[in-house]
From TrEMBL:
PROSITE patterns: NOL1_NOP2_SUN (PS01153), SAM_MT_RSMB_NOP (PS51686). This is MFS transporter. S-adenosyl-L-methionine binds at residues 229-235, 250, 276, 292. Belongs to the class I-like SAM-binding methyltransferase superfamily. RsmB/NOP family. The gene is sun. GO terms for biological process: regulation of DNA-templated transcription; RNA methylation. The active site is at residue 345. The lineage of its organism: Bacteria, Pseudomonadati, Pseudomonadota, Alphaproteobacteria, Hyphomicrobiales.
Amino acid sequence: MHLAAILKGKPFQPISPASMPDPRDRALANRIVTTAMRRHGHISLVLDDLLKKGVPDRAGPLEAVLRTGIAQLLYMEGIPAHSALHLSVEAARRDKRSGRFDKLVNGVLRQAQRDAEKFAALDPILLLPDWLAKGWIKTFGAEAVNKFCVALLEGAPLDLTLKRYDKDLVDALGGELVIGNSIRVNTRESVIADLPGFAEGKWWVQDAAATLGARLINAGKGMRVLDLCAAPGGKTAQLASMGADVVALDIDENRLERLAQNMDRLGFAPEVVVADALAYEPDEKFDAVLLDAPCSATGTFRRHPEVLWQRDAGGIAERVRIQRAMVSHALDLLKPGGLLVYCVCSLESEEGEDQARWALEQFKSIALAPVSADELDGWVEPITSQGTVRTHPGLAVPGSAGGTLDGFFIARFVKN
């Protein structure tokens, strides 16, 4: 069962046509799974209330069955209660381990239905793990974190980066300009590959916040730029579209294959390198390095709600260690006067603001290159007093597109 794998730590991947050919069934199944993930915090409290001894051990996918059943009964419109109950019991029976508890499934879900009004009154902040909620309130404030909860339930709209701005294409896509060549499509009826301009390589999928790091390099024709941890290639495409000579490096060969396919569709030809970023030793140093470092990815919870429950403080500490090693090596790959742009799709200050302070204290050969509002088309809200950039899912996008964006931290350094 799809949700069962996610509960064991697997990342969410939408159910594919190969495993569920009917598009209507597939869309509904994906909606049920994503609702169960977005409501994970509330559903945990429901289960705690109704199962005083917890979910039985050695019960196979029982927890996933209960969570999807509760998601349908309490948090999804348009699904008849009898259908949700019947399908949940049948899903439990498909596995010998959970099938023993079919009566339990029926009883728990019926009680959840009877107590629906009580569970509807749960505080939205309980959607978040306690340790993250407390840290985020301290960093961003309670008002912003309340908006995080709204953004979690709403999910992420579709953001596209245009190779070149084209008003007719924007109109055909039903999009609104966000910043630079980034547009937002709030509603769509077609799959990505069927949208106008996809086959012709006129755009790629990329959250508006994710565009800012490459933008701050201000790459020009002939500029030699290294995109570290490049896959799936959104930032590589941005740099190539500016005319830079880009080296796209990643350790994951499969992800780089996807990058290469994207570049081929877009008509770009960066040098693609499969290598460990910490061991990469090129013959020539670079004018700029874009380091989108491996991180907790907590800033992406609108599209990947599972990260909220798959992360812990210990894992963040290990990522901090790797990030510091990568910053150190990235500086070695820079020419004098070169730029390092460090970014993470994390909301944790340990991976963002604290790392910028550490780098300035550790390396006397670098200085912070503050970001100005002009570089973000006059958008001042994400720029901190230090001249770094901090976006989060409680921050509204500029322009008329509406909605929020992923959480990113970006710092730009110049090597003296």
